[in-house]
Design goal:
alpha+beta, Alpha-Beta Plaits, 6 strands, 32% helix, 29% strand, globular, hydrolase activity, metal ion binding, hydrolase, antiviral defense
């Protein structure tokens, strides 16, 4: 199946982890580092996102995030199509901000 804006997905990971003790800060930091090693990029401080070329690829990365879940805290995982992601409006104050670049995909015929 050809890649298109409805098949390509973005995974968003939202989290609110406790950071009151040194150990909790370490766990939260390790979670952020681990998901970044899996290709997620910071969108906002507690929101990370990753571009995936297919549902199958997204499922692999979602499974990896689930294995990394800390004992405490709240974590949400959401997928949206590239089309839905492209309709998002971002603002810094009242100034509109451009969406992050979509990674380039090499397509072989």
């Amino acid at each position: 199946m050809r890649l298109n804006e409805y098949r390509i997905l973005w995974i968003l990971v939202f989290f609110d982890l406790p950071t009151e003790t040194k150990k909790e800060r370490s766990v939260a930091s390790r979670f952020r580092q681990d998901i970044m090693r899996d290709g997620f990029a910071m969108f906002q401080f507690s929101i990370y996102l990753r571009h995936c070329n297919s549902r199958e690829n997204a499922d692999v990365h979602i499974k990896r995030v689930k294995k990394l879940l800390p004992e405490k805290g709240h974590v949400g995982i959401m997928t949206v199509t590239d089309k839905q992601f492209g309709m998002m409006e971002l603002f810094y104050g009242k100034k509109e901000k451009e969406l992050p670049d979509t990674p380039q995909q090499l397509e072989l015929f």
